[in-house]
Model the fold of this input.
Amino acid sequence: MTGGPVASQEAIKQIGTNGGGFYNVNSAHPFENPTPFTNLFQIFLLLVIPFAMAWAFGLIVKDRRQGVAILAVMALLLGISVALLTVSEMAGPGTAPAAAGAAMEGKEVRFGEAGSALFAAATTGTSTGAVNAMHDSLTAPGGGVAMFNMMLGEIAPGGTGSGLYGMLMLAIVTVFLCGLMVGRTPEYLGKKIGQREIILVALYVLTTPILVLGGAAIALTASDGLAGLQESGPHGLSEAVYAVTSAANNNGSAFGGLTSGTPFWNTLLGVLMLAGRFLPMLFVLALAGLFARQRQLPPSAGTLPTHRPLFVALLSGVALVVVGLTYVPVLALGPIVESLS
Amino acid sequence: MTSSLFPQLVEALPGALRKLDPRELLRTPVMLVVEIGAVATTVMAALDPSSLAVLVTIWLWLTVLFGTLAESVAEGRGKAQAASLRALQQESTARRRRPDGSLEAVPSTALRAGDLVVVEAGERIPGDGDVVEGVASVDESAVTGESAPVIRESGGDRCAVTGGTVVLSDQIVVRITSEPGHSFVDRMIALVEGSERQRTPNELALNVLLTSLTVVFVVVCATLYPIADYSDAHQSLIVLTALLVCLIPTTIGALLSAIGIAGMDRLVRRNVLAMSGRAVEAAGDVDVLLLDKTGTITYGNRQASELLALDGVSADELAEAAVLSSLADETPEGRSIVALVGTERPVPAGAQLIAFTATTRMSGIDVDGRSIRKGAASAVAAWSGGSLPQLDTLVEQVSSTGGTPLVVAEQRDGSTRLLGVIHLKDVVKEGMRERFDELRAMGIRTVMITGDNAVTARAIAAEAGVDDFLAEATPEDKLALIRKEQEGGRMVAMCGDGTNDAPALAQADVGVAMNTGTTAAKEAGNMVDLDSDPTKLIDIVEIGKQLLITRGALTTFSVANDVAKYFAILPAMFVVAFPQLDSLNVMRLSSPESAIVSAVVFNALIIIALIPLALRGVSYQPASATDLLRRNLLIYGLGGLVAPFVGIKLLDLVISLIPGL
Done:
């Protein structure tokens, strides 16, 4: 067996939310991730910078409470997805798991269902994409949660940096939608959200759904796309949708049943990765420029507070409803149908 | 309002039908998408008729129509007012003064700015202008709704007259200040009709967000077609269009412009004319309110509040002397002294009244060999030939609280006796303290502007409960204060009427000019209050906030509705291919077709149901942002989640009775 500088690669892979493993099976390989402890440590590494970004944000804007609020939303959403994934994997619906006594197909015995579920939630909640189990073998609801994590835009807690800006864009959408209800022109951290600002936010919000859904539609129509699917029916759909979601959100994990090593899939996923990474960045930077030029308004009792639990709940709600709803139809035909059968 | 809505809807129908023109709908892309969807389903229903296709088509058209109807109803409310204003514009003949002083008759429409016209009692003033000669009483009821005539005179702050108003007495010479078609009444007509309506910054921004949500859902529905085909769950274009229309934010899209028009209309109903919608929106954002003390915070004249007797003088004695000395005093101060003591009585026979003069600075009465005087401490001291330490203390005490001390003394048989001090003070209007508390809760600081000295200003400010004050304020100070606040990123509202207020009015984010004010003031401000009531500034801020809250509440409601619609439509679409999806049919809707039609009908009816709310605005209670958010979220966020579940279920119970569904 080939050896090499595995350990140093692991640090880079996880702490940079990069996800590319030394071995093909990534963190499922005993040389990459030998024990339950290293498993937890890897999860810690891939989460540490994205969560730290929220804290850093609080320091940068000189109001730690703002950072804590963002951190709380990230933690809340990640907590929900870990819980759902763990429950799904432990319950292990389906014939094979029922016969085997547990949904252990595609998982490593040394991590078990819980260790695998936690890893899956963390790797899709960030833009890491490293895996310690085969996501294609996750249970239907579990795979759905992993997919949904990415669809939210990888904001809980997201990639290094990209998670923070993704969450902040949603915070701006939240302030804009709900902030009007306090009777003032919406403002976030003393910066007014006017027409020019909201155009950039709108473009940001539009990019990923167009890439994911457009990509899925092409993949599921073209014969070259369909040729890559291992399964037919809902699970085949899940494989294709997982692939385009993972590419457009720069995750990198996959439902391994899909044969993506073909010119069609390579081109499609390559384009999605490129556009899905750089277009949103462009809009974020342009928006940052607009905000930087604005004078910062002092807060008053009339301004919408963005550090309270109410805002944390609102932002989580907006993420789930405004972003999540976009993907409900396609999820319904994939993981949801699978889960209900 | 709901009871009277139906006739309004009928009346607005022709206008609503005209607005179905796609070019008109370009302004609201959400509704344009619905119309395109309606055209598409019409074609499909014609090619392949079915109950589902026909019903969806009808209700999609109704959805668009309800949207244009909302706008049309909102506009209709200004029409009646515009008609009565137009009556003012009937052409009349004006007498223009030539440079040589002779008069010529010209049609009022031919008058240009700078022309001088002579207007006599009984005549209509031919155009906006300033009185340059004479004084007259003018009936401005047609513009202001106030029936009492007002005095207009040359010079000073009461020289502005409005075209179309009627001179009741005397003769004045007016210098016309407006060009034909650009008069105050012209602007009013354009405003109330909404024809000049410019969409406001926030409305435009919200429109962008709604458009982007629409694009997202167009992508969702368009890609669902091939994806469903892959899943062997082919969807007809009718069903996908129905899904699309249910998901895009039609509720807020349909009501958005009605909310804006109605907001302006609410101001007009309170006799405030906003020269732009931008100003109304800005009113909601105001952080600092500059209020003039006199007439706004206080009644504007000093009133006796207490009598302070010197040692050895009984309270009754002082009271009696105070009343006697004030019987002939017709100034508000004098009357307030009589009112304070509460003994109204005739002037004693043979009494000689001594009127106040600027040299003596005292007034009083001479009766039965007794002279009583009241006046400024120094004047009375000079008259009585002395003072007492206790008196000085009392005078100092009154002055230090911002009041004005009036010393009362009497002279009998050659000997003079000091009696005591009347405390005159500026009386703060009732309820002002509570209003300022409300404003503070809303995050708005109030600054009192006064020409008084700092001591007086501080005392009144403390009593009224304002946050800050500007004493001995000159117009320049006011302007400087506004600039300073704005540099700190705060938005400032103020009102004013004099020409010297004009720079500050122009600088303020919200400048409300009093209608009694000068033309310069009215042109500098971005609102005019026809009632000339400075307190209204507070109402204006509340209307601005209410406008934004209504928009936000309906947007939240609209977006939250989508959750229930998914639960209605998605199982209906795919239950044939995947029977297990029936477990998502939590409303237990009777059939897929009925579920889809119910969702579409709900989506249309909710627009009609919310028109009254859009026109009236959501109820607004001054409160902190956190409280407002919590309350409105509960009503419109949670309501928006729950209402469609109930509504769609109820509609399904009815619609499922239609054959073929």
Summary: The first strand of chain A starts at residue 187 and ends at 188. Residues 36 and 172 of chain A are 39 Å apart (CA to CA). Chain A touches chain B through 64 residues (CB under 8 Å).
